[in-house]
Queue: 3 jobs
Job 1
Amino acid sequence: MPDLANHERADDTVRIATVAALAVVSILPILVMLSTSLKTQSQIFSGSFSFFMMPTFENYRNVLEGRFLGYLGNSIIVSVVATVLTLVFGTMCAYAISRFRFAGRSPIAMSTLLVRTIPPAVLAIPVYFILTPLHLDGLAGLTISYIALNLPFTIWLLYGFIEQVPTELEEAATVDGCGPYRLFFTLILPLLKPGLAAAAIFTFRIAWNELVLASILTNRTSRTLPYGVYLFITDVGIDWGQLMAAGMLVALPPLIFTFVAARQIITGLTAGAVKG
Amino acid sequence: MQLGSGLDRRLTPYVFAAPAVLIMLFGLLYPVIEAFRLSFYEVRLGEPVTAQAFRGFAIFAEALSDSSVRKSMAVTLQFSIIVVAIEMFLGVGLALILEKPLRGMMVFRTLLVLPMMIAPICVGLIWRYMFDVNVGPINSWLSVFALKPAWLAESGLAFFAICVTDIWQFTPFVFILALAGLQGIDQSSVEAAKMDGASTLQIIRYVKLPLLAPILMITILMRVIDALRGLEVVYAMTNGGPGLSTELFSLHIYKSAFVTQRMGHSAALSICLLIVTTALSALLLMWSNPLRQKGR
């Protein structure tokens, strides 16, 4: 049936065109940021936009000469520490909920699910009032807040992965005299790599991108990148080249993660809505 | 010895759960209680919370009748309904078109996820540049038609601009969830409908959409909750202006705390926001409880 084959081919063409158009819409603004970051002031302010230019790294050089390098360091420290601790504590808690029956199990499980949508704007004021007298404002307090914010998602994502590990494995290891902690760290954790990867990307990304709490808890020396970028907007005007260069530096790690681990990210995104 | 190891065994789950539970108590629950307490006091940033500053529920009453608060509630309501409706329509429509596996779909999905992954502050700044009246690419392209709208300086246009930005960022989220849902549909019901001579549109209307309904409900709830929580994109794009035309509720909370520094006012409103998001979150749990559905 040649007619049907033709029809199918036309159908495919429509779908490929749709996909291509969508992909372009999706990345075009990001490419605008990239190309603007590589332009000179006069090119940017010429008033007619073009993707093409002689690339210059002037903006990047200027950005990295200022305080920005310090902000970068702060962001890396906060995000890495928050990610590692969130994964360890979150997985331990998910393991307790999955494998043990204990008083407090359901309240912990239920409240964990409810608090995962607390808006950062709700936390901003009280966290400031709580942490400042304890001298925990700055990077330490920020890290604690990020761990707390990320634990709920990590716990229920990892819970799903732990549930898929057959309990026979643990029973056998217990019979062989393996204690519960050694069992968890040497047997269970390595089996959860895909789940841990997804949780790590989400936690790191949220800590790396977070602005509201960071703008409140940090000062000139402890500032992290997102608020650092925002400070390029001044009353005098906006240096778009430098702003976009700074934005690119902030956007780069999440962009890289997305290309390296797209599958884990989509797992994480769909985890809540679609039964695994 | 025997007794000791029995106690040990009973303590084990608590040892596993304790670090996470303690951090969540300190980092989430305690701040929420503190926000509730602060909402009774009229204090400024850096001031001690004294008995003289106690106003009780008066601050709630005053905050909820404030005209700028009413305005920001209206803006938030309009914004959430418009963006979520358009995102659902586009996302589900695209998923239906692209349901059949296509080569290179993974690369495509990767590109679609990018706007959700980069920092909201970057998204806001990119689109502030896109919509810039003098140097922005959009006006540069529109100059062909001799148009030069002042996107972010005019109320209606600024509201339009923040909607476009949100739709750009989150339509892929709806698309990915809807696609995952479609691919989980039992194909035999679709085949059966085809055998009965149902048209493509009829299959979508009477077979696929009803089967997708639970996932679509969850997606809507997740999007609404997120739309209520987020403030960074608008903070970077318009900072709520011009006037109050793009001042989302969460942005109003943030600004009244740290710009106008009315802590009680801000805390009271944040409790209201928390009640709404938590109620939606509870609704979400009734639809899909990740701890229950795996049946243990």
Note: Chain A is about 75% helix and 0% strand.
Job 2
Amino acid sequence: MDLDLLSRQLIDRFQHGMPLCAEPYLEMARVLSCSEAQVLACLQRLELAGALSRVGPVFEHSRAGASTLAALAVPAERLHQVAERVSQYPEVNHNYGREHHYNLWFVLTGPDRRHIERVLEELERDTGLAPLDLPMLTAYRIDLGFALGENP
Amino acid sequence: MTAAQALALRRLLEQGLPRVSRPYQALAEQIGTDETQVLGQMRQWHAQGLFRRIGLVLNHRALGFTANAMLVLDVPDALIDEVGQRLGHAPGISLCYQRPRRLPQWRYNLFCMVHGRQRERVEAQIRQMLEAHLLSDLPHQLLFSSHAFKQCGGRFAPLPSGVPAHG
């Protein structure tokens, strides 16, 4: 999508951090010299265009609970069906098809490690496919935001 | 704030802040407390490191970043921290994690994410990055995404007892 100036400013300025106060949208409007109504309308436009998934905290996996990256090698003709099964779990947040023998990759989150293991065991029973379970050991970079102009 | 209210607040936060003038007031009403309590709890969680950040969470595919690649490398264990630090700080890398090998199925122990607009440019960028760091000889693969089946925030907070975790 093409971004208007206010959208770009909102993304660049508040992707990594927004004010934690009673009226955050008003404070964001002050920083960008516009009105609170314009900020709220702009966020609404971004959401309707599919560009904004939400506003608010991104939880730190290691503090908030347990998580893992899992992968399945799914026969091509079953990929969509198995992907749908995987996506049904509220514990799954990212679920991507990738070009590889292991062609379905998803992130599982839950309150603790045992919970994650139960979901993986259930998926293996349901699909007959053995998931790779690849929990993070060390984070060398965790920045989830990105600059609009810098990437190729 | 009670433990049950704090848990309810976390579950609401995982879905994002309401987009009204006083979002914390709106959350407070939903869990039966007041805005001051909710803001106090938020500041405490923030100080404790429960949040990576509070801000706009974007869907990069809708913004044109459709060439989403996962670079995986098989790095000798003795070098993993050095290579991880170097690639983690290379331009264009948005995530860099060490994960366990699962032999014999999976040999790769370092994962980097790159989001770009064009596949060829992402491939060239990664090739140049590996050459610049003299890492081209390490076994590695580039896994481009072919389809995004689901993308949303993590759900960490346990459901209240009695509610099934998934249907």
Note: Chain A touches chain B through 87 residues (CB under 8 Å).
Job 3
Amino acid sequence: MADYEYLVEVNDLQMHFPVKTGFFKKTPLKAVDGVSFNIKPGETLGLVGESGCGKTTVGRTLLHLYEPTGGTFKFKGEEVTSKNIGRLRKEMQMVFQDPYSSLNPRMTVEDIIGEPLDVHHLYESKEDRREQVLHLMELVGLNAEHATRYAHEFSGGQRQRIGIARALAVHPSFIVCDEPVSALDVSIQAQVINMFEELQEKLGVTYLFIAHDLLVVHHISDRIAVMYLGRIVEIADADELNENPIHPYTLSLLSAVCVPDPIKAKANKRIILEGDVPSPLNMPSGCPFRTRCRYATEQCAQEAPSLTDRGNGHMVACWNK
Amino acid sequence: MSEQKIRKINVRVANPKPHRASSDHPVLSVENLHTSFITDSGEVKAVNGVSFNLDAGKILGVVGESGSGKSVTAYSILQILDQNGSIVEGDIKFKGKSLLEYSQKELDAFRGNNCSIIFQDPMTSLNPVFTVGYQMNEALKLHTKYNTTQLANERSRQLLEMVGVNEPEKRLKQYPFELSGGMRQRVMIAMALACEPDILIADEPTTALDVTIQAQILELMKDLQKELGMAIILVTHDLGVIASMCDEIIVMYGGRVCERGTAEDIFYRPAHEYTKGLLKSIPNADNMKERLVPIAGTPINLLNMPKGCAFCPRCENALKICLEEVPEELQMPDGHFAACWMNLRNEYVKEHGKEVS
């Protein structure tokens, strides 16, 4: 295998869905429109944005759950196509948002966690499979006696642990986590976040951590990318992004966060964005954020800004800032 | 610590002084509320003795995990519980008069005129087969002087404008599915405000929304509260929202109040083990580089409530007495209240200068 600096290299990824807008007419819905980023081995990249900005689509497109309509994705220096994805899924896995609908209610926990092992033929005998499953369950903090139970017998946090064990079954080096903690109670969230961090230390896995809770993302990520309407508008080191945001959208996003600290929260001046996110079927010309941006100029309407480096890998896509 | 010793201390702290912030004439007072649901698997005791006073023009935050009884408390006030649920004990008084003695007619007038609610999910709480205008007019015609379609339409338009919906005239003719999540929530708020209630109950009003929309809605609620002077009960699990909105906070667990006090009391001087754990388990600006400290275990099963303190099975510092007896509320030196045996124990240790077994 070729040498690689980045485990994941995404270049100009596009995912356009054809949507029927008339009897014969089809318009492309640009869910992801030219997204590029890299992730180093063992790193966590956080992906944040409002609902409908395409962050989930990015995650799903990487694993070819949707066939991308443009751009390239290199994994360990090797380009991922529909031909080799079957083999590469052994290295790339996904943890889904909703632990209630992503587990088959008719399968026991042992079969849920063992299914990836079946698919990739990763065991020699029944005993070996069982042993591997039990080891995985121990890794995510489930008891061995839970193996024969069904998903509905577990609480939300435990189900998410099952989902994580299933993703870990094939010893992947890259896991896409799509809002893995947003459906969980506050006190359980911390348990799952800690587990993600511990597993990374123990197994050296790389995460793409998709979430909308900026405090959670800041806590778990090394770097953070901010998405708006299918594009990345800013990408930087987690601390750098929080202390020194540049893009006007990032600024308003960070100011909208409710900090759990009454004095800070009441002193916080929110930058309230006017209006709603434009429909991705009818995107504004040029910079997608210009309709809600207070710095917007003529140039923004004509040409979309691309990501430029503002020092130390702090990339921003904005003409005026 | 032996039960006898605890009891001795308990005598001293019984009859705590009334909370310094509560006035003599609260607009709403909930006294020892118990609400239960009868299900096939047994009686679910969702609320087990909740008491609080709500003063006019204040924002009261009720915070807790799922199953802590915070929504059921809100529904009990409006008496919109499911058929299998009922208030089994306690009282709810609106301006001194018990709501439980209201006739159906009086209740109908109370809901809407005096108290209204914003539900969590705006999509399922708006009727999909009627236009926004029709649904808004319904409340206006029933409860206010805008009792003709023309007057009600005009008023609805004003209300939508007030909550920041653009093109209100067009929106009135649209159906809920044609609006975005933030718009729908604004419509819900406009409906709740239609009759200018004294009390607005907001049950997780921003949970289904994005942060930027959440910021818009919270600012809106604050502005409206100042303008109209109503009291708000804000029910949520999001400590960030509570911190930025509320004057007074109640922390609930297992259908009981663990701790009550001002925002500063709760966030800077928590005195209940659950509140302490909760604050440690959320990421904030100061613990970004550290591991979070989660609360072990899983949320409580209301079918199988522990005999003593509801939080005891998950509590790190649980004492023997926690298993046996429900702690009473005890006033802290700074004036806020917490129901935790640990405080009594610490008091005892301080007084006697030695560790108790």
Note: The longest helix of chain A spans residues 186-203.
